Amino acid sequence: MKRRYSLTYLIGESFKSLWRNGVMSIASVTVLMSCLIVIGGFALIILNINKNVDRLGLMNEMVAFADYDLTDEEIASIKDQIDKLENINSVDHITKDEALEELKANAGEFGDVYAELEGEENPLPDTFHITYNDNSKASTLYYQLIQIDGIYKVNNRLNVANTIDSIKNGISIVGVWFLAILFVVSVFVIVNTIKLAVFARRNEIEIMRYIGASSWFITIPFIFEGIIIGLLSGGIAYFIVYLIYRYIENNAASNIQMLSILPFTEVNMLLLAGFVIIGILTGIIGSCTSLRKYLKA
Amino acid sequence: MIDFKNVKKVYSNGVIALGGVDFHVNDGEFVFIVGHSGAGKSTLMKLLLREEIVTSGQVFVNNHDLTKMKNYRVPKYRRELGVVFQDFRLLPNKTVYENVAFAMRAVGTPAKKIRKRVPAILSTVNLYDKFDCFPSELSGGEKQRVALARALANNPKIIIADEPTGNIDPKMSMEIMNLLIKINRLDKTVIVVTHDQKLVDYFQKRVITLNDGKIVDDHVGGMFE
Lengths: 297, 225
What we know:
Largest sheet of chain A: 4 strands, antiparallel
Strand order of the largest sheet of chain B: 6-7-8-3-9-10
Oligomer: heterodimer
Number of domains of chain B: 1
Distance between the termini of chain B: 27 Å
Strand content of chain B: 25-35%
CATH topology of chain B: Rossmann fold
Number of domains of chain A: 2
Order of helices and strands of chain A: HHEHEHEHEHHHHH
CATH superfamily of chain B: P-loop containing nucleotide triphosphate hydrolases
Number of helices of chain A: 10
Radius of gyration of chain B: 17 Å
Largest sheet of chain B: 6 strands, mixed
CATH class of chain B: Alpha Beta
Strand content of chain A: 5-15%
């Protein structure tokens, strides 16, 4: 006799049992959804903090002012010394003439005011715009610059740089651990919830075994159930996070000028994919591990 | 064909459930297995269903050597048996029809054949008019008849009934037993494990009596101490 298993039957069976085991299904979806919202929310917070920190990081810049009465050779030697320092990304030498031109340009139609300052009368110093790579070594760089002969002042944002650096380190360490722990806890909670759901149906499984149903015939509806629960929880969690994020984007963020919030469109795919994958995986893992106990022949 | 050859079963906690059991059941036979609780009846059932494996000896069912059977072969083997339990073990959230159809789906029967066969089986056990009921809406006797219909669904050669009348009133018990006799006439081997002395005496079939893990009596014609 030809054996034929109907996939539509098995999927239909999953929906039916989800419906008939209503309370357990709702419990599973609620638990999974809550876990996803917490994980998703935390991931979004970390993403946003990192973005803001990176943005601050773009301001890795110091400006060194040279003494007024230096010869061209002396200026060149200062530039040489700066170039040789570690942690330098770029050095941009702006001569006093260039600085004056810039002032003029910025002044627009009143640029002529500066006309009489040209040449020997120029009161502006030569400056070096220095960008550097490593925020954590910014203070070293600052002290090295200030010690160079002919430099009388270095403008810096050292305190900002140091704060950013420690924030970034702290966040990435705490964040990664927190996310990992959260994920493990979620998997445990979800797997246990599904275990309860499977336990509630151990009679059904036992009957199937006595009838001679193959293991996968018993397992597949549970896996589909896991997938459906995962998809449902992921979908609802996504929607809720979307609403909350939109609210924050529109209200809270505009009150804090310094922060820039990632637009939701930039993270939505990542979030949705993460939710659906975590949801489905935990659903499947939960179903399979809980069933294994009952399937030993 | 069922063949037990010097079967011993010792559980991991040291309990000797069966201490050397020999018997043979031919195709188409009707056999009562009786004995006090603890005599080894349940263990015998578990060995037949390949839920447990013998400690020593051999069990043959339909030419399968159960002592050597691999786990993954067990589901297919169980399809050759129809099992009825004292507590019915129906799926509570499926209707009568679905409970029977389920057994056929579980072994991959095409939907067309299921639609044809389920009503026929339900008629055999006189339950056709209840096909849309859930088990909770049925009496004990009716539930057992559904269980019997399910056991028959895949047309097994052997029907094993574990205390099939244990949970139902005497009048219904007779009806269930008559159904089992009727099934036996359809050329199926029927094994009935029971406590019910009246039934055993009434039907005058072969009786195997177990005591303390051993067969103490094996004869045709009812009566057991």
